[in-house]
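Troubleshooting: if your tokenizer reports a length mismatch, compare your output against this known-good record of 243 residues.
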Amino acid sequence: MIKFFRKIRYDLMEKNKTGKYLKYAIGEIILVMIGILLALQVNNWNNNRIERKKETNYIKNINKEFKLNRKQLDTVVFYHRKVSNNATKILNLIPIDIKAVNKDSLSFYISETFNHYTFNPQQSSVNSLTNTSSYELISNLELRELLQKWDEQVKDYQEEEILFKEYSFDNYVPYFNNHISFLAFLNNTNIFDYNNVDYTFLNSLEFENAIALRKELVNDIILKSELKEINNTIDRIIELTSE
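Known-good structure output:
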């Protein structure tokens, strides 16, 4: 093809047809420019096709991960609420009539306050977008913004869970270590089932404070705005990534 155009140029120059040669030269330049533009357009189409394929894969994985996150968060909150509800039941019994109280029920209430589940979401797709600076692949601007804020939202929510967990290991469990049978707790039997039990601790200020603070810390998780925000974000991301 190049030889063909070159032969035409030579013929026009040899025949001294300058005007026609100039017109031809301009036409040839225009054809070359059109060819370049078409090649660029084809390249853009290919790049867009590749990016849209990547976006589709991300969207599918994000949807799958956040559906799992929804289930996990629901489970975690379920156990948080159990802690709060059982702590409330214990506080409603105070002052406890040691002779009249149903010790099996009280054992169950206390045992249920030892739950300390934490929310650890799956977010490999979000991390991949962050680590590769690829958020621009997500064409939906609302979804992109939600994903960019997700990690910070999780950290804000987890702050209360971390405090709750630290109190469990540093204060709550050590306190009850002196008053109940953890072997019975692990076997799901009455935690007061051991010799020479002293039930008087149930009416101590330390016991009341331990239960009250346990309830307060878990309520900081389930009643504050961070949980509502993270719930809304999960639901909206699932909605935006559903086919």
